[in-house]
Amino acid sequence: MARYLWIVGALALIAAADARKPAPPRGELVVPIDAPVIDVEVAGVPLRLRVGLDAKDVVEINADVIPRLPIMFEDGFDAQVGRETIKGVTAIGELRIGRTKRPVQLSSHGPKCCEGVDGEIGLGLLPYATVRFVRDGVQGALEERRLPVRSTIERGLEAVPDGSPIAIQLAPGRERSVATAAAGALLARKLGGGPDGESFEVASAFGVTRPARRVRFERPAEIAGFAFADIAVRMTDFGGRESFADPDAEPGDIVVKRHIPRQEAWPVVMLGRDRLDRCAEIAVDMVGRQVTLRCVFG
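Above: the chain's sequence. Below: its structure in token form.
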């Protein structure tokens, strides 16, 4: 769960690339949920990239790939992981997938992007109209849920349920589901409940861990068809003006809290393998802007 910090140079590179629009997406890509890897070329160099359901619309590469590419990188395109800033480098390079090619934004934020592959690519950069992530052997009664989606270079692919202020990212590469502070506070306000227990660390992007607490609900939350009695919440990340009620405060009490500089609110829940391992298929319609989940819900 990272946000990119824009700089003038990166914006100029994006604008230059956008002047040459790619062809409309067509056809279908089918990949295993647990190993969604494709072969591509970047600047004429063969690479193996993981297709990230929660990846941004950039090609993120491991640092050891940079010397193999015949292009110049410059400082910038830093990533904000919670409250930590990870310095990055960026460039524009030609991406070739099959017979299609287009200029894309490349970035690298050190060696801890993608183990076992050269990097990661977001769905918005693929030439396919539909991308299907599939798994065999799921036990139980499969049902379908459809949700509208949006995709941006800053946040990547998000499902946006109608009428909900909370977005959903599908992250089968993550072990557990986690919410930002804004999402956790909104859910607790709607369902009742609040933080419970001690703080612990959860894995985030680029090898960074962030502090979290368990938030328990008085009524179960339903997120993309999955039930949650509780969820891990990164209590200090992307909370904006949202906050949790203090259950021990009496009317008229003055509650003094440690001041933490406010970030922009980003209310999002990232669904990890603790829920998505129940899915036989996650199909993203990039033209119709819709994701279909075939999973054992509840």
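Residues 5-11, 248-259 have pLDDT under 50 and may be disordered.
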